[in-house]
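Our consortium's second objective concerns turning raw sequence data into structural hypotheses that experimental partners can test. To show how far this objective has progressed, the report includes one record in full. It was chosen at random from the queue rather than selected for favorable results. The single chain below, 424 residues long, was entered without modification.
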Amino acid sequence: MLQNLMTSGMLVELTLLLQLIGLTFAILLDPYIQKKHRRIMLLNIAVGFSLLVQNHLNFLLDASGSMAFLRTLISIYGYCVRPIVLVLFFYIVGGHRSYWPAWVLIGINALIHLTALFSDVCFAFDENNHFYRGPLGYSCHIVSGILLLWLLWITAKSFTVIRKREVLIPACNVILIVAAVLADTFVSFEAFPVTFLTIAVVTSSVFYYIWLHLQFVRAHEKALMAEQQIQIMMSQIQPHFLYNTLSTIQALCKIDPDKAFDTTEKFGTYLRQNIDSLRQPSIISVQKELEHVRIYAEIEQIRFPSVHVTYDTPDLDFRIPALTIQPLVENAIRHGVRIRDTGLVTVSTQSLPGRHKIVVQDNGKGFDVAAMQEMDETHIGIRNVRARLEQLCGGTLTVESSPNAGTTVTIYIPNIPNETDHSR
């Protein structure tokens, strides 16, 4: 039985060592983790590795029944370092602050345990190498308990900042460490070379790395989304559209001042809505998107009277990503119906079982859909719209077109209940 326990302990040590090695490589190679957090995690790994060594040396010296002074030094190191692990977790969960009261507690704990070199007030080993605690023997437990409560408080504060489910990771780590301390206190396996707390520290380090990785990946995705929104906005405010609209307003000022005034107002509204799209939620009501489409179309119809845009939209009870329909109507006007004596663009919506359908159809010059796969700049708008539909609401976009026969773009949106639009 004793031999089996020792063998199991050695396997646990090897497993923990492999975890620390794998975690080190993961942290060094992870492109998402920030430098400051990488330093903290690597320091945490170093402390975890030192605790493994400390546990093993303590086990060997205990088995030898000699060298009590050396065992005292090793034990002092273990008691002084264990609370440091908790403070390192502070920096992972709560950010890089000073946390100077925590370091004061760690200093006090270290001073108390250093007394073991000349006094038995904290702990000592007798002539038979047996460990016993003095009056201050639980100072490490008390300091660690305070730090654990502090860590739990920092974790609770993060509840409103990060996703609720992900808070379970640091919260479970706290519970795991508490359980390990209790196990080390009340369960004794003298033939086991590693403590429960060391196992908990290494395991928590792995979990904290996973937690950090989730945070940084999400931050990276948000940054990419923000960049994409800016690119989409800029793609909608094309220089030629600005210049042509301003030229139209300039010409109208001489021949029809009232119409020039009205066009200027519409143009200002169009620009404002494009800029506002950066601050709006990821998805907005389809009514709001159609308002933007109408303003854009009315400005274009001033310059191209032969272009007509009609709407058949009985289904308005759903939400879509901002700037979804407007780029499609812009493509239809710019690259399709201008060549026709009577250019027609039709925007329609329809409610279907389990989904909503949007169709933007024109009688323009059309194009070869297979050639569109090359994704030249003419069709970047379609590509962006499709990607955002898939990412933000699980929608789909298909294009049907052929030369001289017009183009039909069809969008399907899953049936998600409409919510109050707070973007107004």
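The partners drew two points from this record. The beta strands are 123-125, 131-133, 283-285, 307-312, 319-321, 343-352, 355-362, 396-401, 407-414. Residues 368 and 402 are 5 Å apart (CA to CA). Both points have been shared with the crystallography group to help prioritize constructs.
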